[in-house]
Design goal:
Belongs to the carbohydrate kinase PfkB family. The protein has 314 residues and is α/β, with parallel strands linked by helices. It has helices at residues 37-47, 62-74, 120-127, 142-157, 170-173, 178-188, 208-217, 256-269, 274-288, 301-310, and strands at residues 4-7, 11-16, 29-35, 52-59, 81-84, 90-96, 102-107, 131-135, 161-165, 191-192, 222-226, 232-236, 239-243. Bound molecules: adenosine-5'-triphosphate and magnesium ion. Residues 167, 195, 226-229, 231-232, 245-246, 248, 250, 253-258, 260, 282, 285-286, 289 line the site of adenosine-5'-triphosphate (ATP).
């Protein structure tokens, strides 16, 4: 089976317990939960039995140990996760507003996560990689951008493939060089996994069809547009395949896009037809939102297949 590698932020997430709760005053918090978009992605891929590993960095603290232990338990290759003494693991504090929007206080660049580098362990992991996945949120500093771009270069040089999820968080969009790096990664991607409005960040077209045509003409092999509870649509130069979402009670939306992407890419790497890859991906996205915490809704392939068999789509 093909090996998938991710690179980027490893965090713990700590969330406000109540909707509408503010960080301007004390309140109940839940967590720490293992998190970080590329970590969620690699964890879900590993749970689906795809060989998968992550390049990243944590502190020599319980937050770091929690993350490494979770990824290892899910079956991921954690050999390229560096542990830095004297630096704390990255964090994300999140509040949920009544309008369903989420607001984050991130500590990524100045945490151990910011020390990400292409060290000997990373080079070793990349030597066995067939595919690299990049999250836009992982392009948070010049150093992190350099790691992502060198991973792409290494994997592409031996005929491998690249997937890209812009995963825009407005709290980190201002990072210097991020916008240019997003464009650079997109230019080398085979699979593009935007969600909602992210489709329009990279094209001049104002409607979905126009944006898809423009992006496919730039060399992408396929675009998979995530649409939350409504499911997702796959596009390639032969046409489109739509797949409805599953009906579930949403408890916590964080992580759905990452679990969806991991499942789609894992099945694409196995040569599955788009409709089949979408079915599994929609199921993983739906299961992800049924649990509080971004990695708590990651399930192994057998459980995902059993869920798909219920056929409980919208
Ligand atoms: P994230 O917030 O993790 O970045 P995203 O914006 O990238 O998520 P979404 O479109 O919100 O991506 O969700 C990804 C996929 O997860 C959807 O395409 C769908 O398959 C599934 N999903 C998300 N929310 C729900 C829901 N409420 N009910 C069922 N499925 C859902
Ligand atoms: Mg996303």
């Amino acid at each position: 089976m093909k090996k998938l590698v991710g690179a980027g932020e490893i965090l713990v997430e700590i969330m406000a317990e109540r909707i509408g709760q503010s960080f301007l005053e004390p309140g109940p918090l839940l967590g720490p939960y293992p998190s970080g978009a590329p970590a969620i992605f690699i964890g879900q891929a590993a749970a689906l039995s795809q060989p998968a590993g992550l390049i990243g960095a944590v502190g020599d603290d319980d937050f770091g140990r929690l993350n490494i232990e979770r990824l290892r338990t899910l079956g991921a290759d954690v050999s390229a996760i560096a542990v830095h003494k004297g630096h704390a693991t990255g964090t994300a504090f999140v509040t949920y507003r009544a309008d369903a929007s989420r607001h984050f206080v991130f500590n990524i660049r100045n945490s151990a996560a910011g020390l990400i580098e292409t060290n000997a362990a990373a080079i070793n992991l990349l030597a066995g990689a067939d595919h690299v996945h990049v999250m836009g949120s992982s392009l948070f500093s010049d150093r992190a951008i350099a790691v992502a771009l060198s991973a792409i270069e290494t994997v592409k040089a031996k005929g491998g493939t690249v997937s890209f999820d812009p995963n825009i968080r407005r709290e980190i969009m201002q990072a210097s060089g991020m916008r240019a790096a997003l464009d650079q990664v997109l230019a080398q991607a085979d699979i593009f996994l935007p969600s909602g409005e992210e489709l329009f960040l990279f094209s001049s077209a104002r409607d979905e069809k126009g944006a898809v045509e423009e992006l496919l003409a730039r060399g992408l092999s396929c675009i998979v547009l995530k649409k939350g509870a409504a499911g997702a649509v796959y596009h390639d130069r032969h046409g489109a395949v739509a797949s409805s979402g599953y009906a579930v009670d949403e408890v916590d939306p964080t992580g759905a896009g990452d679990c969806f992407g991991a499942a789609f890419v894992s099945f694409w790497l196995r040569g599955a037809a788009p409709a089949e890859a979408l079915r599994i991906a929609n199921a993983c996205g739906a299961l992800a939102v049924t649990r509080k915490g971004p990695m708590e809704g990651i399930f192994p392939l057998e459980a995902v297949e059993a869920f798909v068999a219920t056929g409980n789509t919208r």
